[in-house]
Amino acid sequence: MPIHIEIPFEKYHGLGNDFLVVQARRLPRSLSGLARAMLSRHTGVGADGLVLVLPPRGKKHDARLRFFNRDGSEAEMSGNGIRCAGAYLMCRKGKKPVLELETVAGLKSVERIETGEGSWILRVGMGAPILEPARIPFRAEGVTAPVMGFLLRTQRGVLPVTVTSMGNPHCTVFVSEFAGIDWSHLGREIERSELFPRGVNVEFAKVISREQMEVRFWERGVGRTSSSGTGSCAAVVAGILNGFTDRHVRVRTEAGVLEVAWPESGEICLSGPVERVFHGTYTYRGL
Length: 287
Fold this sequence. Notes:
Blueprint: E1 3-14, E2 17-23, H1 31-39, E3 49-54, E4 63-69, E5 74-75, H2 79-90, E6 98-103, E7 106-115, E8 119-127, E9 147-154, E10 157-165, E11 169-174, H3 183-191, E12 201-209, E13 212-219, E14 223-225, H4 229-241, E15 248-253, E16 256-261, E17 268-286
């Protein structure tokens, strides 16, 4: 039987990587179908991702989050998405400066650094990167952690890659220039490689200096995005592992700069801006 559900939402973006944030109340059974409908650029609201806010399982935590991609698939974690959800929740939790948020990738902290009119700069404690191939997961034979310089066969030739996880799988390709590289085509191909049973996010990273890199992003289940939080973290981890960068790096995306720090024996911290775009009500029509 067809249903009509009115779903309030707010739209945010972190350097052009945009998300719809929704309280998980009275939603259709198919959250995958809801994500595809709401995130459509032509027939829905339009965004890269959908973040559902649920009650936390832990009494001392502030919320539980679920992340969905534009194709309806569920992601374990999103660095930009969690900042967008953090801004949404900080509007509702008064002056609380730090939120503890549950994700499939574990408990994450979001700290307010600066607040403006409909804008925030937030820092996320992203946890430690996952380097063990089985946990990423990455199914190449004979590889051990960390996976660096792995020769990945593609239609454009063999590429040395670094494979990590920020709670979601990542493949980093270092390049000298973006011009002349069809990185969107490569990103799409690598995302679907049989070596990554859950698919993979792909970053193309150009090292500018030991404190700065420029990155392009192909996100699993979304495609090309102007920025990526977990992708920026993964690119910096790859830079550190390969000895290309120091442990605090400014990541230049197509839409602005994210700050990534990975202290020795510590967790990765991601800092960047969030802006609220608008709010509204979406009418879901389905079964």
